[in-house]
């Protein structure tokens, strides 16, 4: 998978010139949406199939600050995957290679009625794509 690259915008910084912590979670979502496109299963396709994938947990460990103009490379990897949960790991680095944040999000799968679904039964193509991405990470 190709990492997601993002440039820190001025409006994302605080009065100290440092990126506000809430923006990292937004960047995780941007990178995750890009990851889904690369899987060949964008969220629009998943939702057209009647499945949503809400965030049920998120965590960030901030290592170094980012400032306006920094180019941040976000690597996304599947940490774990089961029939009802998907955990994604994120690593954010500056162009220099300096680690700025490690993060994680966890998701479940719901049908249109808001009930948890068996993703392996409901969207087997999605499961194959995720498992392939996991294999590429390991190989």
Write the layout of secondary structure elements.
Blueprint: E1 4-7, H1 22-39, H2 43-48, E2 55-62, E3 71-81, E4 85-94, E5 99-108, H3 119-122, H4 124-138
Antiparallel strand pairs: 1-3, 2-5, 3-4, 4-5
Characterize the main sheet: 5 strands, antiparallel
CATH superfamily: Hotdog Thioesterase
Q: What is the end-to-end distance? A: 13 Å
Flag low-confidence runs: none
Domain count: the total is 1
Percent strand equals 25-35%
CATH fold assignment:
Thiol Ester Dehydrase, Chain A
Please identify the top-level CATH class.
Alpha Beta
- What is the number of helical segments per DSSP (H or I, 4+ residues)? 4
CATH architecture verdict: Roll
Indicate the structural class.
Answer: alpha+beta
Descriptive overview:
With 139 residues, the chain is α+β, with helices and mostly antiparallel strands. It has one domain: Hotdog Thioesterase (Thiol Ester Dehydrase, Chain A), CATH 3.10.129.10. The chain contains 4 helices and 5 strands; from the N terminus they run E-H-H-E-E-E-E-H-H. It has helices at residues 22-39, 43-48, 119-122, 124-138, and strands at residues 4-7, 55-62, 71-81, 85-94, 99-108. A 5-stranded antiparallel beta sheet has the order 1-3-4-5-2. The two termini are 13 Å apart.
């Amino acid at each position: 998978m190709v990492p997601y690259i993002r440039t820190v915008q001025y409006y994302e910084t605080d009065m100290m010139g440092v990126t506000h912590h809430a923006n990292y979670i937004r960047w995780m979502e941007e990178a995750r949406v890009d990851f889904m496109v690369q899987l060949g299963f964008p969220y629009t396709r998943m939702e057209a199939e009647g499945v949503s994938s809400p965030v049920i947990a998120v965590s960030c460990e901030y290592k170094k600050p980012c400032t306006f103009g920094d180019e941040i490379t976000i690597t996304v990897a599947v940490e774990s995957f089961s029939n009802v949960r998907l955990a994604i790991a994120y690593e954010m680095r500056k162009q220099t290679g300096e680690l700025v944040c490690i993060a994680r999000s966890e998701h479940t799968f719901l049908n249109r009625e808001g009930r948890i679904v068996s993703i392996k039964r409901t969207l087997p193509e999605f499961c194959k794509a995720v498992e392939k991405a996991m294999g590429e990470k390991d190989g």
